[in-house]
C-alpha cells in the first residue's frame, strides 16, 4: 500500500540529512505512485515557502519601516539567512525528487509492438525468440496493471532517463547474481563467463546513456536561434 504524500514528505526531509548512498536506497524503495506523490509534494512545498516568505515581508514592512529603516534590513537579512540555512537540505530533497518521472499517460506508438517486431532480427534461435516474446507480453501486462496503460511514445516520461535507470538496475542485479555465485572479480579466471559478460554490457549501457544525457543537457541552440522560434 502506497504511503501518503505527507508521509513521504516527512520521510524525504529525514532522508535528506543522510548520505547519498542511504538516499539512493530509500529512493529505490519507492514505487512509481509514491515517487509521483513526492515530486508533487516537493513542488507544493516550494510554492508554499515562497508565499510564506512574501507574507512575512509584507507584514513586517509597515511596522519595521515606522521604527527604523535598519530593522528592515535586519529582517530581510534574517529571512535570507533562513533561506540559506535551509538550502542544503532543500537541494538534497530536490536531488531525491530529481529523476522521479510522472505517471505515464496514453501516448502514440505502442513500444512493445515495435520491440516484438524486432525479435526476429535480434534473436536467431526460434525457440528462444518464442520464449522472449511470451516474457515480453507478460511484462506488458504487468505494466498495464500497474499504470493503467501500455508503454507508448509521447507518454509524458523521458525514455532516455528511464533507459539509464534501468541500465543501472541491470548492473545491480547482475552484480548481485555474481556475488551469490561467489565468482571471482573481473580479472579472475572465470571473468569471461556469461554473467560477467552481461555485467560488462550493463556498464556499457550505463556509460552510453549517461553520456547521451550529459550531451543533451549541454546542447545549446544554434547561433541566432531563440527559444520559441
How would you briefly describe this protein structure?
The protein contains eight helices and no strands. The protein has helices spanning 5-15, 20-28, 32-67, 69-97, 111-122, 126-147, 159-180, 194-218.
Lay out the secondary structure.
Layout: H1 5-15, H2 20-28, H3 32-67, H4 69-97, H5 111-122, H6 126-147, H7 159-180, H8 194-218
Task: Provide an overview of this structure.
This protein is mainly alpha-helical and 229 residues long. It has two domains: 5-97, no CATH class; 111-218, no CATH class. It is built from eight helices and no strands. It has helices at residues 5-15, 20-28, 32-67, 69-97, 111-122, 126-147, 159-180, 194-218. Helix 1 packs across helix 3, helix 3 (32-67) packs antiparallel against helix 4 (69-97) and helix 7 (159-180) packs antiparallel against helix 8 (194-218). The chain is elongated.
Radius of gyration, CA atoms, in whole angstroms: 25 Å
Low-confidence stretches: 221-229
Helix content: over 70%
Question: Helical element count?
Answer: 8
| Secondary structural class | mainly alpha
List keywords for this structure.
229 residues, mainly alpha, 72% helix, elongated, disordered C terminus
Amino acid at each position: 500500500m502506497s504511503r501518503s504524500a505527507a508521509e513521504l514528505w516527512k520521510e524525504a526531509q529525514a532522508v535528506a540529512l543522510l548520505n547519498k548512498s542511504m538516499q539512493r536506497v530509500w529512493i529505490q524503495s519507492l514505487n512509481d505512485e509514491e515517487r509521483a506523490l513526492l515530486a508533487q509534494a516537493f513542488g507544493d512545498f516550494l510554492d508554499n515557502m515562497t508565499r510564506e516568505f512574501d507574507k512575512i515581508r509584507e507584514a513586517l514592512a509597515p511596522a519595521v519601516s515606522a521604527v527604523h529603516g535598519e530593522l528592515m534590513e535586519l529582517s530581510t537579512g534574517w529571512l535570507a539567512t533562513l533561506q540559506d540555512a535551509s538550502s542544503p537540505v532543500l537541494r538534497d530533497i530536490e536531488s531525491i525528487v530529481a529523476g522521479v518521472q510522472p505517471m505515464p499517460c496514453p501516448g502514440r506508438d505502442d513500444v512493445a509492438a515495435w520491440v516484438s517486431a524486432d525479435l526476429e532480427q535480434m534473436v536467431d534461435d526460434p525457440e528462444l525468440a518464442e520464449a522472449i516474446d511470451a516474457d515480453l507480453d507478460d511484462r506488458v501486462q504487468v505494466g498495464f496493471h500497474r499504470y493503467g496503460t501500455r508503454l507508448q511514445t509521447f507518454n509524458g516520461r523521458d525514455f532516455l532517463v528511464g533507459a539509464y535507470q534501468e541500465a543501472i538496475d541491470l548492473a545491480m542485479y547482475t552484480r548481485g547474481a555474481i556475488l551469490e555465485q561467489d565468482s571471482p572479480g573481473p580479472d579472475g579466471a572465470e571473468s569471461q563467463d556469461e554473467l560477467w559478460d552481461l555485467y560488462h554490457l550493463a556498464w556499457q549501457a550505463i556509460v552510453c546513456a549517461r553520456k547521451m544525457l550529459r550531451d543533451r543537457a549541454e546542447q545549446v541552440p544554434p547561433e541566432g536561434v531563440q527559444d520559441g522560434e
